[in-house]
């Protein structure tokens, strides 16, 4: 049931890291949502942006498990209440891992520790390839893909 994706990106560790954690880059990858966090273990994390509850709809929230700049980010993952009023029942974990491979960066995304019957599983399975493709395209070209 784990979701695991590997993507190779023509860029530096620093560029790929920025695409994952810097609000201005995240906003481009995540359709107008920004990431809000101190990126310190135990602190909160939220992806907030336009949605069904207005301009500050919380799409995903959780707390930082590990954060090592240019290497790894892992956090507890819950979907926002706009998607599931019982979101607290369905915790999972998201981990980004970065590794330099020649002149490229290998970005591994692992979304695991799913609870049985998590209603966000299918949406995540569908969305991650698009988000990772957007990350790759942004780093390599300075633009994102237009899916809608």
UniProtKB/TrEMBL annotation:
Signal peptide location: none
Organism: Paenibacillus solisilvae
The organism's taxonomic lineage, starting at the top: Bacteria, Bacillati, Bacillota, Bacilli, Bacillales
Gene3D superfamilies: 3.30.530.20
Protein name: SRPBCC domain-containing protein
Domain Activator of Hsp90 ATPase homologue 1/2-like C-terminal residue range list: 13-139
Family membership noted in the UniProt record: Belongs to the AHA1 family.
């Amino acid at each position: 049931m784990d979701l695991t994706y590997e993507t190779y990106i023509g860029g530096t560790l620093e560029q790929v890291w920025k695409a994952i954690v810097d609000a201005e880059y995240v906003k481009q990858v995540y359709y107008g949502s920004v990431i809000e966090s101190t990126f310190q273990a135990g602190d909160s994390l939220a992806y907030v942006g336009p949605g069904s509850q207005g301009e500050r709809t919380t799409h995903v929230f959780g707390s930082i498990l590990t954060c090592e700049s240019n290497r790894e980010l892992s956090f507890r993952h819950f979907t926002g209440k706009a998607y599931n009023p019982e979101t607290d029942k369905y915790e999972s974990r998201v981990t980004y891992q970065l590794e330099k491979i020649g002149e490229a960066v290998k970005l591994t995304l692992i979304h695991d520790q799913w609870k049985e019957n998590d209603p966000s599983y299918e949406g995540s399975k569908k969305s991650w390839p698009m988000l990772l493709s957007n990350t790759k395209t942004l780093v390599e070209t300075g633009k994102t893909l237009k899916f809608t």
